[in-house]
Design a protein that fits this description.
alpha/beta, 7 helices, globular, about 15% strand, Carbamate kinase, six-stranded parallel sheet, single chain
């Protein structure tokens, strides 16, 4: 029997305001076609706090980006705590090993090491250290690197008709997701 495809699921940071996020997310995952699910949490309020500090203190884009990537450690740990049975993986090499050994399963991935060490050294077009690249683009880059069959963006709203325009995804997302076979957008707050 062949292994299930890899699906990267980006859990939008705004969803962390849902009191039932854990059960709601488990229910959604259970309704999907079986896959090897890699969940990546967005920055949410932690990234918003960095945005406010940048506006107040003029931290600059590189410093702000680094702080937001650091904040993704917190949201990854929180997501793993909300999803018992979904182990937290912090290194890309370990994630690849787990995906190679398992036919199905779910893991929460913390992208800190991936973004600070692996991606800038190994990808021919690293994501910029700026507000133009958020966890949306990070999840797209991870999906590309893993050869995922699908990237799902779980958000708090429906996508606009032209989802690549406006604030629905970050400015780097279209380029980061260009090589992906399938990108799906889901309003988890609605369901």
């Amino acid at each position: 029997m062949n292994a299930s495809p890899v699906r990267v699921v980006k859990v939008g940071g705004s969803l962390f305001t849902l009191p039932d996020l854990g059960p709601r997310l488990r229910g959604w995952l259970n309704r999907q076609v079986p896959a090897r699910d890699v969940l990546l949490a967005g920055g949410g309020r932690w990234a918003d706090a960095v945005r406010e500090a940048d506006a107040r203190f003029g931290l600059g884009q590189q410093t702000s980006h680094a702080l937001c990537v650091e904040a993704l450690r917190v949201s990854a740990r929180m997501l793993a705590a909300l999803l018992p049975g979904c182990p937290l993986v912090v290194r890309l090499a370990r994630l690849r090993a787990v995906l190679g050994a398992e036919r199905q399963g779910r893991w929460v991935f913390c992208p800190h090491q991936f973004m600070t060490r692996w991606e800038p050294r190994n990808h021919p077009r690293p994501l910029p250290a700026s507000w133009a690249a958020t966890s949306d683009s990070i999840s797209a880059r991870l999906a590309e690197v893993l050869g995922a069959g699908e990237l799902v963006l779980l958000k708090s709203c429906d996508p606009p008709a032209e989802w690549a325009a406006g604030d629905y995804v970050d400015p780097c997302f279209a380029t980061a997701a260009a090589n992906l076979a399938c990108v799906r957008h889901v309003n988890l707050r609605a369901g």
